[in-house]
Amino acid sequence: MPLKVAILYNDPPGEVIIPNGEEEAITGVLEEVVAVKKALLALGHGVEKIPLRPPLDTVPHALRNLNTDVIFNLFEGFEDQPHSEPVVARMMEEMGLPFTGNPSRVLDLTLDKAGFKAVLQEAGVDTPAFMVLTPANVQDFRLRFPCIVKPRDEDASHGLSPENVVSDMQQLKEQVVRISSRFRGCALVEEFIDGREFNASVLGNSVHELVEISEITYTLPPGLPRILTFESKWFEDTDYYKGTGVSCPAQIDASLRETITVAVLSSCRAAGCRGYARVDMRQDRDGGIKVLEVNANPDITPELGIARQAAARGMAYTELIQKIVDLALE
Ligand SMILES: Nc1ncnc2c1ncn2[C@@H]1O[C@H](COP(=O)(O)OP(=O)(O)OP(=O)(O)O)[C@@H](O)[C@H]1O
Ligand SMILES: [Mg+2]
Q1: pTM value?
Q2: Which domain holds residue 266?
């Protein structure tokens, strides 16, 4: 049945100069909008685009009087206001507008990485040991080096570079100071898990189905820690971009596949995910899987993440987009 679909997304701030040099991540969403729109049109649906720009209090106006059956939610939060992502989802909930993907509750929960790690632990899901540190309490550090220092509530590898991986107190302090001053006053410090890196997406509302597992493959020059940095995602001219690949489906044996599947489904159940989501994880020295995070609003650009995983099991991009819409209307 043809539907009227409104695509909600971040309107890139045009002429505005972004201080962190991170405009690449912001324009990335446009590629996604074009692809989703094309797929929806190919499926016979009507499409309207709803670009959002700050300030947040103008968003209800943009949402009011929409003549639509469902909103395709690609809104990732305004630059430097990560919490605007769940806030906009809550606005749609309060207005009774059905939308794709995760509800505000899940977007909110998973945005706070430290808070959500506690939820994972509670649910029996293994996640790297961690502490939330500030310049004032960095002396309380009780983890084992090496560690990785990350913003507590940002995504798209904002602020991640090789220096974030630290192996002594001096480096730790520097990074806690740097991350804290740039991202809301504190830093999430985790033990660094150096094994293979995987991610897997799920589809489903109350019952989740794992789509496929990808492995991130690293061939980096010596001395560069194997992590997905901001560069590996967005800057083609760098060692990180050139030295980072994806293998999908991951080449793994049945037992590792089972371990990953259990970790992914347990994480999504613990989060209460609806629609679609992607879980990032790493293998530790003992062969176990440690969950790094659940992305409740993951990239759905063709050939990446969930779209690539869907393709690996024979699901066309249009089929994936229709499935996501169907789950929203369920
Ligand atoms: N504890 C850890 N041990 C090893 N590597 C890690 C750890 N935490 C993060 N990383 C590396 O850093 C990358 C980014 O970390 P993470 O997924 O937590 O943050 P993100 O920036 O929110 O990512 P995304 O863009 O997927 O939302 C991971 O893909 C992984 O390569
Ligand atoms: Mg991640």
Answers
A1: 0.94
A2: 110-126+194-329
Nearest bound ligand to CA 229?
1
Compute the distance between CA of residue 18 and CA of residue 302 in angstroms, rounded to an integer: 26
Tell whether ligand 1 has an atom less than 6 A from the beta carbon of residue 147: no
In a domain, 105, yes or no: no
Domain count along the chain = 3
* DSSP string for 247-307: ESS----HHHHHHHHHHHHHHHHHHT--EEEEEEEEE-TTS-EEEEEEESS----TTSHHH
68, 298 in Cβ contact below 8 A?
Answer: no
Q: Please indicate whether residue 148, judged by its CB atom, sits closer than 6 Å to ligand 1.
A: yes
Query: How does pLDDT run across 145-175, given as a tens digit for each residue?
Result: 999 999 988 754 566 889 999 999 999 999 9
Beta strands, E only, the chain:
4-10, 46-52, 70-73, 130-133, 147-150, 165-166, 187-191, 197-204, 209-218, 244-247, 275-283, 289-295
Compute the distance from residue 72 Cα to the ligand 1 centre, in Å: 26
pLDDT digit string (tens) for 231-258? 898 889 999 999 999 999 999 999 999 9
CATH label of the domain that carries residue 73: 3.40.50
Q: For atom 30 of ligand 1, which residue has the closest CA?
A: 227
Query: ∠ CA(253), CA(278), CA(175), 5° rounding?
Result: 100
